Amino acid sequence: QVRLVESEGGSVQAGGSLRLSCAASGDTRSTYCMGWFRQAPGKEREGVADIRTDGRTSYADSVKGRFTISKDNAKNTLYLQMNSLKPEDTAVYYCAARNGFYCGARIPSAFDYWGQGTQVTVSS
């Protein structure tokens, strides 16, 4: 079992930056793929980025080149650095974890543990 707690999100203007963090507690000795998802009003939850146990990362096309996922194993913390933010990035952002070394498909049903979500608002 893993408990995930996201940092507070925020509001920025288009072109700005935000960094989200997600602290993991519980059984952090096991191997997990970690990921970030987001859900905008009226839309389905979508995968944004994920990071394997060995640090290999993967991104959705919509954020590639603007967002960076990383983790600090010593602190059991996952990060999402978001640059060049656009209004369409506005959503509730969730961190998530799934058991296993590999990440596989970046879909919500494949992930086992979820944070509570944090609001990110980008104004034009």
Structure description:
- This protein is mainly beta and 124 residues long.
- It has strands at residues 2-6, 10-13, 18-26, 32-39, 46-51, 57-59, 67-72, 77-82, 91-99, 113-114, 118-123.
- Strands 2, 4, 5, 6, 9, 10 and 11 form a seven-stranded mixed β-sheet that branches. Strands 1-3-8-7 form a four-stranded antiparallel β-sheet, with no helix packed on it.
- The termini are far apart.
Give the strand content: over 45%
Determine the oligomeric state from the structure. Answer: single chain
Q: Which parts are unreliable, with pLDDT below 50 for 5 consecutive residues or more?
A: none
Distance between the termini: 40 Å
Could you spell the SSE succession in H and E letters?
Answer: EEEEEEEEEEE
Molecular shape: globular
As a whole number of angstroms, the C-alpha radius of gyration is 13 Å
- Structural class category: mainly beta
Q: Biggest β-sheet, characterized?
A: 7 strands, mixed
Question: What does the average pLDDT come to?
Answer: 95
How many runs of DSSP E, i.e. beta strands? Answer: 11
Helix content: under 10%
> Treating each run of at least 4 consecutive H or I residues as one helix, how many helices?
0
